[in-house]
Amino acid sequence: MDNCEKNLSGNKTVFIVGPTACGKSFIAHELAKKIHNAEIISADSMQVYKHMNIITAKASLEMRWKIPYHLIDYVPFYRTYSVADFYEDAVDVVKQLHDQGKIPIIVGGTGMYVRTLLKGICSAPAADEVFRAEMMYVAENNGSQYLHDKLREVDPVSAELIAHQNVRRVIRALEVNKITGEKFSELKSQWNNPVADNHPVLGKLFLRGVFWTRNLMYERIERRVDEMIEQGLVKEVENLIKFGILKNKYASQALGIKEISAYISKKCDLGSAVNLLKRNTRRFAKRQLTWFGKEEGFNWFLLLNESSFYKVIRKMYDDINI
Length: 322
Hints:
alpha/beta; Rossmann fold; Histone, subunit A; Helix Hairpins; 14 helices; 7 strands
């Protein structure tokens, strides 16, 4: 049997991260095929929702027939799915796969999902929806900076780490302080600890990231958005709105909902909506790279062209087989 086809076994977990449209999903899929006894766990906070196929660039049904995928098409888009939900579900899947002698490949660009799985869920209190609604009202009437200043008064460390535009995270930090009397930044102190080589839950870790130069990354993003439009993004967003996605404040944050909604409601033409989506996706990719750049322990691969994919896949395979 060829070395590329033999089974790999052991208590191992692979992570493949990177910005949107970088090709990490393709790499994960091809790597799973080579490993032969691997399955994929999505660490994407939007791919978890059903019926959001084009807008989240999910793996095709054909790909999912060939390799088992987990936590993709997992919950209806009207349901709230939290980081804590992901942590619990992902840990369960990892344990099941390890028990079967399989290797989980965790792939995605949601930084909080990845960090939580590696370092654990912080012991923060459950949500206070009344407080959140009140704070959202304050932000809408006084601006995000006003709310951010309130956070700086009670938790300057969190204020330094959370941008004022990220209203949801600012409100969460304020909420934790209100309920517990403690600083959100202190509750997350375990995240400052290094990740153990032999993780107590995940086993031996293989932490990998992929990226492109900025110009090539932006070209890939623009190409992907154009392809999404050709695949029927406008119709998909129309259906999502029709069936109530805007009622879910989490799922409705998916890139493309706001931009294409503006076109659907005739607030702008399609070209303007597409250009806005491209711009916002570029900005999102930049934020993802900033986030993952702060995560220690990851080995990064710079992709230069399409043939680079297979060199990276081979290198990852060899590393896992050591």
